[in-house]
Design goal:
CATH topology of the largest domain: Rossmann fold
Protein name: Osmoprotectant transport system ATP-binding protein
Keywords: ATP-binding, Nucleotide-binding, Transport
Strand order of the largest sheet: 6-7-8-3-9-10
Pfam families: ABC_tran (PF00005)
Organism: Rhodobacter viridis
CATH class of the largest domain: Alpha Beta
Shape: globular
Number of domains: 2
Largest sheet: 6 strands, mixed
Oligomer: single chain
Number of helices: 14
Family: Belongs to the ABC transporter superfamily.
Number of strands: 12
Strand content: 15-25%
């Protein structure tokens, strides 16, 4: 669990972050979203004391982060940034091993952890362990950057626009992979993004920032259906709202008896994906694995209801 308690940061008397309080429960993903200059990155960097708060406290569990030496605190907190931040003259394995070596892990334990993480991120150690970062694709480099941040089994992972430099296709895959791996490991995660779509895709809760203030901190469904301010409502986007709401539910919620031709889709497929597939392929219904169908009419009715 991480708790921010009336956190503020002032530069020359001007508040960049002003009186922010929120709690991220253990195993949750919190997405900090807002326009440039909203204070979200400064807020993130105060958590691991890359920026020292002017006022307020950061609590990691029951521990006041201000009571921990900064370099020791950062070894407990994973940190991944846009552009991966890998050391170019160190191999993939050496990059992943950095924090465990600083913590004095045994070499056998480090080696096993490198292999474990590389396999988790679908990077064959026999192929990629001894490669330098420049020999990897952008998506592979980003995966190594996240693997490095997770190497010492941190209780908390901070991510600052980690997928901003990736193209849309690779970015969507990276988001899906991160969500799946986070669920598998149970790591508490705070991610900064300027993209509301990404915040909804990843966040269990979304913190909307503007001009240093926290406007709303709530689950994605609440952000979409009950925006706290006109700024939050504008950030959500009136035209996009029904489709973003569809992305929060799966076809299992609209499954009904029946049969339809074609390859069955997974019950965990989002309603948004199912609607897109129906429209793209001109189909009135899709079969669902395990039996039943989801119909275009039901998907459209749900989208229309979400728009009201």
């Amino acid at each position: 669990m991480i708790r921010l308690d009336h956190l503020s940061k002032l530069y020359s008397g001007r508040a960049v972050v002003e009186d922010v309080s929120l709690t991220v429960e253990t195993g949750q993903i919190a997405a900090l979203v807002g326009t440039s200059g909203s204070g979200k990155t400064t807020l993130l960097r105060m958590i691991n004391r890359l920026v020292e708060p002017t006022k307020g406290r950061v609590w990691i569990g029951d521990t006041d982060a201000a009571k921990i030496e900064p370099h020791l605190l950062r070894r407990r907190i994973g940190y991944a940034i846009q552009g991966h931040g890998l050391f170019p003259h160190r191999t993939v394995g050496e990059n992943i091993a950095i924090v465990p070596r600083l913590l004095g892990w045994r070499e056998a334990e480090i080696s096993a952890r490198i292999d474990e993480l590389m396999q988790l991120f679908d990077l064959d150690p026999a192929v990629y362990r001894d490669r330098l970062p420049h020999a990897l694709s952008g998506g592979q480099q980003q995966r190594v950057g996240v693997a490095r941040a997770l190497a010492a089994r941190p209780e908390l992972l901070l991510m600052d626009e980690p997928f901003g430099a990736l193209d849309p296709v690779i970015r969507a895959k990276a988001q899906d992979d991160l969500r799946a791996i986070q669920r598998q490991l149970g790591t508490t995660l705070v991610i900064v993004t300027h993209d509301m779509e990404e915040a909804i895709q990843l966040g269990d809760r979304i913190a909307v920032m503007d001009k240093g203030r926290l406007l709303q901190f709530a689950p994605p469904s609440e952000i979409l259906t009950a925006p706290a301010t006109p700024f939050v409502e504008a950030l959500v986007g009136a035209a996009e709202r029904p489709f973003r709401l569809l992305s929060l539910s799966t076809v299992d919620a609209l499954r009904e008896p029946g049969e339809a031709p074609g390859t069955p889709i997974n019950p965990d497929t989002s309603l948004r994906e199912a609607l897109a597939l129906c429209l793209w392929e001109g189909r009135a219904a899709l079969p669902v694995s395990g039996g039943g169908i989801v119909t275009l009419a039901a998907l459209q009715a749900r989208a229309e209801g979400a728009s009201r």
